[in-house]
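Morning!

This is the sequence you dropped in the shared folder:
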Amino acid sequence: MPRFAANLSMLFTELPFLDRFDAAAAAGFRGVEYLFPYDVPASEIAERLRANELTQVLFNAPPGDWGAGERGIASLAGRDDEFDRGIDLALAYAKELGNTLIHVMAGVPEDRASDETRELYVSRIRRAADMAARENRTILIEAINPYDMPGYFLGSVAQARELLVEISRPNVELQLDLYHAQITDGDLSRLIRATQDGRLISVAGGVAVPARIAVDASHEAKLRIRQDEKRAIAAVAVSRIAPSDVVYLDAGTTTLLIAELIARDLADHDLTIVTPDFAVASAFRATRRVSVHALGGHVDLANMATDGPFAAASLGDYNIDVAFMSTSSFDLRGLSVPAESKVVVKRAVVENSRRCVLVADSSKYGRVASHRAVKLSAFSAIITDAGLPDSAAEFAAQQGIELVLT
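The structure's back. C-alpha coordinates below.
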Protein backbone atom coordinates (compact mmCIF):
# COMPACT_ATOMS: atom_id res chain seq x y z
CA MET A 1 0.00 0.00 0.00
CA PRO A 2 1.63 3.31 -1.04
CA ARG A 3 2.28 5.89 1.67
CA PHE A 4 2.68 9.49 0.57
CA ALA A 5 4.64 12.22 2.30
CA ALA A 6 4.04 15.87 1.54
CA ASN A 7 7.14 17.63 0.23
CA LEU A 8 6.87 20.98 1.99
CA SER A 9 9.45 22.56 -0.31
CA MET A 10 7.00 22.11 -3.18
CA LEU A 11 3.55 22.04 -1.59
CA PHE A 12 1.70 24.79 0.28
CA THR A 13 4.41 27.27 -0.71
CA GLU A 14 1.99 30.17 -0.31
CA LEU A 15 2.38 29.67 3.45
CA PRO A 16 5.35 30.30 5.76
CA PHE A 17 7.41 27.16 6.23
CA LEU A 18 6.17 26.18 9.68
CA ASP A 19 2.53 26.71 8.70
CA ARG A 20 2.92 24.17 5.92
CA PHE A 21 2.99 21.41 8.54
CA ASP A 22 -0.52 22.38 9.63
CA ALA A 23 -1.67 22.46 6.01
CA ALA A 24 -0.19 19.04 5.27
CA ALA A 25 -1.99 17.49 8.24
CA ALA A 26 -5.25 19.18 7.26
CA ALA A 27 -4.90 17.70 3.76
CA GLY A 28 -4.62 14.21 5.21
CA PHE A 29 -0.86 13.61 5.03
CA ARG A 30 0.74 11.68 7.86
CA GLY A 31 4.35 12.26 6.81
CA VAL A 32 6.39 15.19 5.53
CA GLU A 33 9.70 15.84 3.81
CA TYR A 34 11.47 18.90 2.41
CA LEU A 35 14.84 19.93 1.05
CA PHE A 36 16.53 21.56 4.03
CA PRO A 37 15.44 22.39 7.61
CA TYR A 38 18.50 24.35 8.71
CA ASP A 39 17.07 27.88 8.60
CA VAL A 40 14.61 26.95 11.37
CA PRO A 41 15.57 25.64 14.84
CA ALA A 42 14.97 21.91 15.10
CA SER A 43 12.94 22.38 18.27
CA GLU A 44 10.38 24.53 16.44
CA ILE A 45 9.98 21.98 13.66
CA ALA A 46 9.66 19.18 16.20
CA GLU A 47 6.86 21.06 17.93
CA ARG A 48 4.90 21.35 14.67
CA LEU A 49 5.40 17.65 14.00
CA ARG A 50 4.08 16.74 17.43
CA ALA A 51 1.16 19.14 17.27
CA ASN A 52 0.00 17.70 13.94
CA GLU A 53 0.93 14.07 14.66
CA LEU A 54 3.18 14.05 11.60
CA THR A 55 6.17 11.84 10.89
CA GLN A 56 9.34 13.42 9.60
CA VAL A 57 10.38 11.11 6.76
CA LEU A 58 13.36 12.70 5.05
CA PHE A 59 15.44 15.77 4.39
CA ASN A 60 18.74 16.53 2.68
CA ALA A 61 22.11 17.09 4.28
CA PRO A 62 23.49 20.63 3.78
CA PRO A 63 24.18 21.15 0.05
CA GLY A 64 26.97 23.73 0.11
CA ASP A 65 26.13 27.17 -1.28
CA TRP A 66 22.68 26.56 -2.78
CA GLY A 67 22.25 30.17 -3.81
CA ALA A 68 25.49 30.03 -5.82
CA GLY A 69 24.30 26.93 -7.66
CA GLU A 70 25.92 24.19 -5.59
CA ARG A 71 23.83 21.03 -5.37
CA GLY A 72 25.71 19.06 -2.74
CA ILE A 73 29.42 18.72 -2.06
CA ALA A 74 29.95 14.94 -1.76
CA SER A 75 31.87 14.87 -5.06
CA LEU A 76 33.59 18.28 -4.76
CA ALA A 77 37.31 18.31 -4.01
CA GLY A 78 38.70 20.20 -1.05
CA ARG A 79 35.51 20.22 1.03
CA ASP A 80 36.17 17.44 3.55
CA ASP A 81 35.74 19.46 6.74
CA GLU A 82 32.62 21.17 5.44
CA PHE A 83 31.17 17.82 4.39
CA ASP A 84 31.74 16.28 7.82
CA ARG A 85 30.23 19.30 9.58
CA GLY A 86 27.21 19.07 7.31
CA ILE A 87 26.64 15.40 8.15
CA ASP A 88 27.00 16.18 11.85
CA LEU A 89 24.39 18.94 11.52
CA ALA A 90 22.01 16.70 9.58
CA LEU A 91 22.33 13.96 12.20
CA ALA A 92 21.64 16.45 14.99
CA TYR A 93 18.44 17.57 13.24
CA ALA A 94 17.44 13.96 12.55
CA LYS A 95 17.85 13.09 16.21
CA GLU A 96 15.52 15.94 17.18
CA LEU A 97 12.97 15.34 14.41
CA GLY A 98 12.98 11.54 14.48
CA ASN A 99 13.68 10.71 10.84
CA THR A 100 16.01 7.84 9.99
CA LEU A 101 16.61 8.82 6.34
CA ILE A 102 19.03 11.54 5.18
CA HIS A 103 19.67 12.25 1.51
CA VAL A 104 23.26 13.30 0.74
CA MET A 105 23.42 15.22 -2.52
CA ALA A 106 26.32 14.37 -4.82
CA GLY A 107 27.00 17.82 -6.29
CA VAL A 108 28.16 19.18 -9.64
CA PRO A 109 31.92 18.49 -9.87
CA GLU A 110 34.33 19.94 -12.42
CA ASP A 111 34.95 16.53 -13.98
CA ARG A 112 32.13 14.13 -13.20
CA ALA A 113 33.67 11.34 -15.35
CA SER A 114 37.09 11.17 -13.69
CA ASP A 115 38.26 8.31 -11.47
CA GLU A 116 39.33 10.86 -8.85
CA THR A 117 35.79 12.26 -8.58
CA ARG A 118 34.31 8.79 -8.27
CA GLU A 119 36.81 7.77 -5.59
CA LEU A 120 36.18 10.96 -3.65
CA TYR A 121 32.42 10.49 -3.79
CA VAL A 122 32.62 6.87 -2.66
CA SER A 123 34.91 7.72 0.25
CA ARG A 124 32.68 10.59 1.38
CA ILE A 125 29.50 8.52 1.29
CA ARG A 126 31.23 5.73 3.18
CA ARG A 127 32.28 8.25 5.83
CA ALA A 128 28.77 9.68 6.05
CA ALA A 129 27.38 6.16 6.40
CA ASP A 130 29.77 5.29 9.21
CA MET A 131 28.83 8.49 11.04
CA ALA A 132 25.13 7.79 10.48
CA ALA A 133 25.40 4.17 11.63
CA ARG A 134 26.35 5.33 15.11
CA GLU A 135 22.96 7.09 15.25
CA ASN A 136 21.04 4.25 13.53
CA ARG A 137 20.42 6.45 10.50
CA THR A 138 20.39 5.59 6.78
CA ILE A 139 22.06 7.60 4.03
CA LEU A 140 20.24 7.89 0.70
CA ILE A 141 21.73 8.61 -2.71
CA GLU A 142 19.64 9.66 -5.71
CA ALA A 143 20.16 10.01 -9.44
CA ILE A 144 18.96 13.36 -10.86
CA ASN A 145 18.30 14.04 -14.52
CA PRO A 146 20.68 16.33 -16.49
CA TYR A 147 17.95 18.69 -17.69
CA ASP A 148 16.89 19.81 -14.22
CA MET A 149 20.40 19.64 -12.81
CA PRO A 150 23.10 19.75 -15.52
CA GLY A 151 26.43 18.16 -14.55
CA TYR A 152 25.09 16.42 -11.44
CA PHE A 153 27.45 13.60 -10.53
CA LEU A 154 24.79 10.88 -10.16
CA GLY A 155 23.28 10.96 -13.62
CA SER A 156 21.46 7.62 -13.83
CA VAL A 157 20.00 4.85 -11.71
CA ALA A 158 22.41 2.41 -13.35
CA GLN A 159 25.36 4.48 -12.15
CA ALA A 160 23.90 4.73 -8.64
CA ARG A 161 23.42 0.96 -8.48
CA GLU A 162 27.07 0.38 -9.39
CA LEU A 163 28.18 2.84 -6.74
CA LEU A 164 26.03 1.19 -4.07
CA VAL A 165 28.02 -2.00 -4.53
CA GLU A 166 31.32 -0.11 -4.39
CA ILE A 167 30.28 1.92 -1.34
CA SER A 168 29.35 -1.36 0.39
CA ARG A 169 27.62 -0.02 3.47
CA PRO A 170 24.41 -1.59 4.83
CA ASN A 171 22.93 1.79 5.72
CA VAL A 172 23.34 3.36 2.27
CA GLU A 173 20.30 2.93 0.03
CA LEU A 174 19.02 4.19 -3.29
CA GLN A 175 16.22 6.74 -3.37
CA LEU A 176 14.50 5.94 -6.65
CA ASP A 177 12.77 9.13 -7.70
CA LEU A 178 10.45 8.05 -10.50
CA TYR A 179 10.33 11.50 -12.10
CA HIS A 180 14.10 11.59 -12.57
CA ALA A 181 14.35 7.85 -13.31
CA GLN A 182 11.95 8.06 -16.26
CA ILE A 183 14.19 10.70 -17.83
CA THR A 184 17.57 9.14 -16.99
CA ASP A 185 16.81 5.43 -17.49
CA GLY A 186 13.23 5.12 -18.81
CA ASP A 187 10.81 2.16 -18.81
CA LEU A 188 9.89 2.45 -15.15
CA SER A 189 8.23 -0.92 -14.69
CA ARG A 190 11.32 -2.68 -16.03
CA LEU A 191 13.60 -0.40 -14.02
CA ILE A 192 11.86 -1.14 -10.73
CA ARG A 193 12.06 -4.88 -11.39
CA ALA A 194 15.69 -4.65 -12.45
CA THR A 195 16.83 -2.44 -9.58
CA GLN A 196 18.57 -5.17 -7.63
CA ASP A 197 15.76 -7.72 -7.19
CA GLY A 198 12.89 -5.23 -7.41
CA ARG A 199 11.95 -5.50 -3.72
CA LEU A 200 10.71 -2.16 -2.41
CA ILE A 201 11.69 -1.57 1.20
CA SER A 202 10.69 2.04 1.85
CA VAL A 203 9.04 4.99 0.23
CA ALA A 204 10.41 8.47 0.77
CA GLY A 205 10.07 10.79 -2.18
CA GLY A 206 10.80 7.70 -4.24
CA VAL A 207 11.61 4.07 -3.59
CA ALA A 208 14.66 2.89 -1.65
CA VAL A 209 16.27 -0.50 -2.23
CA PRO A 210 19.32 -2.12 -0.64
CA ALA A 211 22.49 -3.31 -2.29
CA ARG A 212 21.07 -6.73 -2.97
CA ILE A 213 22.15 -9.90 -4.70
CA ALA A 214 19.48 -12.06 -6.32
CA VAL A 215 21.68 -15.05 -7.21
CA ASP A 216 25.16 -16.20 -6.28
CA ALA A 217 28.01 -15.67 -8.72
CA SER A 218 29.49 -18.78 -10.28
CA HIS A 219 32.49 -20.56 -8.76
CA GLU A 220 34.64 -19.50 -11.72
CA ALA A 221 33.67 -15.83 -11.33
CA LYS A 222 34.42 -15.85 -7.61
CA LEU A 223 37.89 -17.29 -8.20
CA ARG A 224 38.91 -14.09 -10.00
CA ILE A 225 37.76 -11.68 -7.29
CA ARG A 226 39.95 -10.21 -4.49
CA GLN A 227 42.48 -13.03 -4.57
CA ASP A 228 45.10 -11.33 -2.36
CA GLU A 229 42.58 -10.61 0.40
CA LYS A 230 41.28 -14.18 0.30
CA ARG A 231 44.78 -15.64 0.54
CA ALA A 232 45.56 -13.52 3.60
CA ILE A 233 42.28 -14.56 5.24
CA ALA A 234 43.00 -18.23 4.47
CA ALA A 235 46.46 -18.01 6.06
CA VAL A 236 45.02 -16.71 9.33
CA ALA A 237 42.30 -19.36 9.30
CA VAL A 238 44.78 -22.22 8.89
CA SER A 239 46.82 -20.95 11.83
CA ARG A 240 43.80 -21.63 14.05
CA ILE A 241 43.55 -25.34 13.26
CA ALA A 242 44.87 -27.75 15.91
CA PRO A 243 46.15 -31.31 15.29
CA SER A 244 43.32 -33.88 15.15
CA ASP A 245 40.62 -31.20 14.71
CA VAL A 246 37.39 -31.95 12.91
CA VAL A 247 37.18 -29.01 10.52
CA TYR A 248 34.18 -27.87 8.48
CA LEU A 249 35.04 -26.00 5.27
CA ASP A 250 32.05 -24.28 3.72
CA ALA A 251 31.49 -24.00 -0.01
CA GLY A 252 33.42 -21.10 -1.47
CA THR A 253 36.65 -19.82 -2.95
CA THR A 254 38.08 -18.54 0.35
CA THR A 255 37.53 -21.95 1.93
CA LEU A 256 39.11 -23.55 -1.14
CA LEU A 257 42.27 -21.53 -0.43
CA ILE A 258 42.10 -22.72 3.19
CA ALA A 259 41.87 -26.31 1.93
CA GLU A 260 44.89 -25.85 -0.33
CA LEU A 261 46.95 -24.45 2.55
CA ILE A 262 45.93 -27.33 4.83
CA ALA A 263 46.91 -29.83 2.13
CA ARG A 264 50.27 -28.12 1.76
CA ASP A 265 51.17 -27.29 5.37
CA LEU A 266 49.15 -29.66 7.58
CA ALA A 267 49.12 -32.84 5.50
CA ASP A 268 50.89 -34.76 8.29
CA HIS A 269 48.10 -33.95 10.80
CA ASP A 270 45.28 -36.38 11.60
CA LEU A 271 42.59 -33.93 10.54
CA THR A 272 39.02 -34.67 9.53
CA ILE A 273 37.63 -32.35 6.87
CA VAL A 274 33.86 -32.07 6.39
CA THR A 275 32.68 -30.11 3.34
CA PRO A 276 29.82 -29.76 0.86
CA ASP A 277 32.19 -28.38 -1.80
CA PHE A 278 33.58 -30.76 -4.44
CA ALA A 279 36.54 -28.48 -5.23
CA VAL A 280 37.45 -28.27 -1.54
CA ALA A 281 37.31 -32.06 -1.21
CA SER A 282 39.47 -32.57 -4.28
CA ALA A 283 42.17 -30.27 -2.85
CA PHE A 284 43.14 -33.17 -0.54
CA ARG A 285 43.52 -35.82 -3.25
CA ALA A 286 47.31 -36.06 -2.73
CA THR A 287 47.18 -36.27 1.07
CA ARG A 288 47.20 -39.51 3.06
CA ARG A 289 46.49 -38.70 6.71
CA VAL A 290 43.74 -36.13 6.24
CA SER A 291 40.30 -37.76 6.23
CA VAL A 292 37.81 -36.05 3.92
CA HIS A 293 34.02 -36.36 4.30
CA ALA A 294 31.78 -34.90 1.59
CA LEU A 295 28.18 -34.03 2.43
CA GLY A 296 25.48 -35.51 0.23
CA GLY A 297 22.31 -33.87 -0.99
CA HIS A 298 21.14 -31.63 -3.79
CA VAL A 299 23.97 -30.32 -6.00
CA ASP A 300 24.22 -26.62 -6.78
CA LEU A 301 25.78 -27.03 -10.21
CA ALA A 302 26.89 -23.39 -10.50
CA ASN A 303 29.09 -23.77 -7.44
CA MET A 304 29.59 -27.57 -7.49
CA ALA A 305 28.51 -27.97 -3.87
CA THR A 306 25.69 -29.74 -2.06
CA ASP A 307 22.94 -28.04 -0.11
CA GLY A 308 19.41 -28.69 1.12
CA PRO A 309 17.93 -30.72 4.00
CA PHE A 310 19.86 -33.94 3.29
CA ALA A 311 23.20 -32.15 3.52
CA ALA A 312 22.04 -30.34 6.67
CA ALA A 313 20.87 -33.56 8.33
CA SER A 314 24.17 -35.33 7.68
CA LEU A 315 26.02 -32.64 9.64
CA GLY A 316 24.42 -34.05 12.79
CA ASP A 317 26.80 -37.03 12.51
CA TYR A 318 29.83 -34.86 13.32
CA ASN A 319 31.25 -33.07 16.34
CA ILE A 320 32.97 -30.21 14.54
CA ASP A 321 35.78 -28.44 16.40
CA VAL A 322 36.00 -25.41 14.12
CA ALA A 323 33.80 -24.42 11.19
CA PHE A 324 34.99 -21.91 8.63
CA MET A 325 31.88 -20.42 7.07
CA SER A 326 31.88 -18.35 3.89
CA THR A 327 29.28 -15.97 2.49
CA SER A 328 28.56 -13.69 -0.44
CA SER A 329 26.63 -11.21 1.71
CA PHE A 330 26.58 -10.12 5.34
CA ASP A 331 25.72 -7.09 7.39
CA LEU A 332 25.05 -6.23 11.04
CA ARG A 333 22.06 -8.57 11.05
CA GLY A 334 24.15 -11.53 9.92
CA LEU A 335 24.63 -13.70 6.86
CA SER A 336 22.09 -13.92 4.05
CA VAL A 337 21.93 -16.30 1.10
CA PRO A 338 20.06 -16.28 -2.23
CA ALA A 339 18.44 -19.72 -1.81
CA GLU A 340 16.49 -21.36 1.00
CA SER A 341 18.37 -24.63 0.40
CA LYS A 342 21.53 -22.95 1.68
CA VAL A 343 19.91 -21.65 4.88
CA VAL A 344 19.39 -25.08 6.44
CA VAL A 345 23.03 -26.03 5.86
CA LYS A 346 24.40 -22.84 7.41
CA ARG A 347 22.20 -23.26 10.49
CA ALA A 348 23.11 -26.94 10.85
CA VAL A 349 26.79 -26.00 10.81
CA VAL A 350 26.25 -23.59 13.70
CA GLU A 351 24.29 -26.19 15.65
CA ASN A 352 26.96 -28.88 15.29
CA SER A 353 30.16 -26.83 15.72
CA ARG A 354 32.09 -25.92 18.83
CA ARG A 355 33.44 -22.77 17.15
CA CYS A 356 32.22 -20.96 14.04
CA VAL A 357 34.51 -18.55 12.22
CA LEU A 358 33.31 -16.30 9.41
CA VAL A 359 35.86 -16.00 6.59
CA ALA A 360 34.84 -13.32 4.09
CA ASP A 361 36.54 -10.35 2.48
CA SER A 362 35.09 -6.91 3.20
CA SER A 363 33.45 -6.54 -0.23
CA LYS A 364 30.79 -8.99 1.00
CA TYR A 365 29.81 -6.62 3.81
CA GLY A 366 26.71 -4.52 3.21
CA ARG A 367 25.31 -6.87 0.58
CA VAL A 368 21.94 -8.53 1.16
CA ALA A 369 20.41 -11.68 -0.31
CA SER A 370 16.83 -12.89 -0.09
CA HIS A 371 17.10 -15.31 2.86
CA ARG A 372 18.45 -14.60 6.35
CA ALA A 373 20.65 -17.51 7.44
CA VAL A 374 22.84 -16.91 10.52
CA LYS A 375 23.19 -14.05 13.00
CA LEU A 376 26.64 -12.54 13.50
CA SER A 377 26.45 -13.47 17.18
CA ALA A 378 26.77 -17.13 16.13
CA PHE A 379 30.44 -16.55 15.30
CA SER A 380 33.29 -16.57 17.78
CA ALA A 381 35.50 -14.78 15.26
CA ILE A 382 35.39 -12.96 11.93
CA ILE A 383 38.45 -13.01 9.69
CA THR A 384 38.31 -10.33 7.00
CA ASP A 385 40.41 -7.51 5.56
CA ALA A 386 40.97 -3.89 6.62
CA GLY A 387 38.22 -2.62 4.31
CA LEU A 388 35.53 -3.52 6.86
CA PRO A 389 33.81 -0.30 8.01
CA ASP A 390 34.32 1.01 11.53
CA SER A 391 30.63 0.59 12.37
CA ALA A 392 30.86 -3.17 11.71
CA ALA A 393 34.04 -3.44 13.78
CA GLU A 394 32.35 -1.64 16.67
CA PHE A 395 29.33 -3.93 16.43
CA ALA A 396 31.55 -7.02 16.51
CA ALA A 397 33.27 -5.71 19.64
CA GLN A 398 29.91 -5.08 21.29
CA GLN A 399 28.86 -8.66 20.52
CA GLY A 400 32.09 -10.11 21.92
CA ILE A 401 33.17 -11.37 18.49
CA GLU A 402 36.91 -11.52 17.86
CA LEU A 403 37.68 -9.50 14.73
CA VAL A 404 40.85 -10.28 12.78
CA LEU A 405 41.75 -7.83 10.01
CA THR A 406 44.38 -9.08 7.58
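Headline: The first helix runs from residue 19 to 26.

More detail when I'm at my desk.
O.
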